[in-house]
Amino acid sequence: MSLVERIKNLCDEKSTNFAEVERRIGISNGQIRRWDNSSPKAENLERVADHFNVSTDYLLGRSNQKNYFTLEANDKSIADKKLKEILNELDEEDKELLIASLENSLLLAKQLAKKKFN
User: Fold this and answer.
1) Distance between CA atoms of 88 and 91, rounded to whole angstroms?
2) pTM reported for the whole predicted model
3) N or C: which terminus of the chain has fewer CB atoms within 10 Å of its end residue's CB?
4) 25-30, Cβ contacts within 8 angstroms, sequence gap of 24 or more
5) Alpha-carbon distance 50 to 56, whole Å?
């Protein structure tokens, strides 16, 4: 799959189009289509990757993993086990503080993501 095809798929997933992406990230109109025949500047490729929250390796077809922070099923079970071990070592007050902290972190992450994609 080409770079332009990958970007098109990402646009379809987000119900947007090239023109809208170009406008939002500040590159010239029609630029993405031209990447079928020429290589993009690294900074423009990075802007597209950041916009869609994917790695540049994914855009370039060097990886099928959209970003570096995706956990595989095995990684999730390992993380789950480690988290349970940590929780078992905490007293009730510390557990409540940890849960409140995690909830606040998730809320903040959602707010930042919403600002980034709106």
Assistant:
1) 8
2) 0.59
3) C
4) 25/50, 25/51
5) 9
Burial 9-47 (b: 16+ CB within 10 A, else e): ebbeeeeeebeebbeebebeeebbeebeeeebeeebbeb
Counting every residue written for the chain, the total comes to: 118
User: What are the structure tokens assigned to 63, written together?
Assistant: 């990886």
18: tokens are 């090239």
CB 79 within 8 A of CB 71: yes
Task: Take residue 97 and report the two structure tokens written for it.
Answer: 């503080």
Amino acid 100 reads A
pLDDT tens per residue, range 46-80: 999 999 989 999 999 998 888 766 556 666 678 78
Contact 49, 58 (CB under 8 A): yes
Query: For residues 110 and 115, which has the higher predicted lDDT (pLDDT)?
Result: 110
Token readout for 50 is 């950041």
